[in-house]
Design brief:
Elements: H1 11-29, H2 33-39, H3 49-57, H4 65-86, H5 88-109, H6 119-129, H7 141-160, H8 167-186
Helix pairs in contact: 1-2, 1-4, 3-5, 4-5, 4-6, 5-6, 5-8, 6-7, 6-8, 7-8
Length: 187
């Protein structure tokens, strides 16, 4: 009889999920002070070194349990597939690039609001996943449908729905995922 063993199959994704969970627990234990200090980005002084740290770490923070579970479900579902295809380093790059671009855009254009959560990374993963069966010289119909459905919904909600969701972060994440997917699969 073969023994089953548990494997750490996707180090980048599992580490990201674990760091996000630790950030979530810290936020609960500090009555939301840790999110404000480390895990959300907002317009703060450029002389504050944490301003630059938060440009990356805001993707680890989450407002509540349902926000955390929603993002981690997608990340844990899609991430291992992507990490197997593209490798640990590329997935870390996608996460960091998405975090930085969404953080900077938010800092510049949305001076009176804060941003936290991994939704941009989720959308990057969604669009990047649609490139997993990409062949040179072809554009998969799945990519077109995903782009239309997910990004179209975000554009529509940006104009017609008032909520605390950063649709721009979703769109930016999707663009990063599509760009990385297309670029990596051209090689």
């Amino acid at each position: 009889m073969n023994k089953l063993k548990i494997t750490f199959n996707s180090p980048a994704v599992l580490t990201f999920a674990l760091l996000s969970f630790v950030a979530f627990l810290l936020n609960m234990m500090t009555n939301q002070a840790s999110n404000r200090m480390l895990f959300m980005t907002y317009h703060s002084s450029l002389t504050d070194p944490l301003t630059y740290v938060r440009m990356f770490t805001h993707v680890l923070g989450h407002a509540n349990w349902s926000h955390f579970i929603g993002n981690m479900s997608f990340i844990l579902l899609l991430g291992p597939i992507l990490e197997e295809k593209y490798g640990y380093g590329r997935i870390v790059e996608v996460i960091l690039i998405t975090a930085f671009i969404t953080g900077v855009v938010h800092y510049i254009f949305f001076r009176n609001t804060s941003l936290l959560g991994a939704s941009g990374v989720v959308f990057a993963f969604i669009l990047l996943t649609s490139f997993t069966s990409f062949k040179k010289g072809e554009i998969p119909i799945t990519f077109i449908l995903i782009a239309v459905i997910y990004l179209g919904q975000q554009v529509s909600e940006a104009f017609f729905v008032t909520d605390n969701i950063s649709n721009l972060s979703h769109i930016i994440g999707g663009v990063v995922g599509a760009f990385v997917g297309y670029t990596l699969n051209q090689k």
